[in-house]
Amino acid sequence: MNTFLKIFQWLPRIICILAILFVSIFAADAFEAGNTAKQQLAQFFIHLIPSFLLLVFLLLAWRRELIGGIIFIAIGIVMTPVIFSHNYTINHFSVAQCIRILLMITFPFIVTGILFIVSYFMKQRRLL
Fold first, then answer.
1. CA distance 115 to 19
2. What is the chain's pLDDT, residue by residue, as a tens digit (128 residues)?
3. Threshold 0.90, pTM exceeds
4. CA 62 to chain centre
C-alpha cells in the first residue's frame, strides 16, 4: 500500500483523538476550591460525558467510516452555532475570538468527518 494513502487513512483517526483529548481538557474546571473530593470527581466525570460520546462515535467511525464521517460533520455543524452563541452572548467575546474558538473546537471534527468520508470512498475504489 502506498505510504501516502496509508497516512491519509490514519489522518482522520489521529485528528479525532487529538480533538477529543483537547475537549477533555475542559473537564479540569470541575476541580474548584470549596467542593469535597467526591463532588469534584462527580463533576469531573459529568464534564467528561461529551468526550465519552465522542469516543463512542470515533469507535463507530473506525469501523464504519461513512457513517462516522457523517456523524462528525453533523457534530461540528450543530455545535458551531451553539458554541458561538455561548461565547458571544454569555462570555462577551468578540466575533474574532469566537471564530478562533470555533476553529479550535468544532473545525477539527468537521475535517475529521470529511476525511473519514473521503477515506471510505477511496477504499470503495480500492485506492486504500
1. 14
2. 577 678 888 999 999 999 999 999 999 888 888 888 899 999 999 999 999 999 999 999 999 999 999 999 999 999 999 999 999 999 899 999 999 999 999 999 999 999 999 999 988 887 55
3. no
4. 14
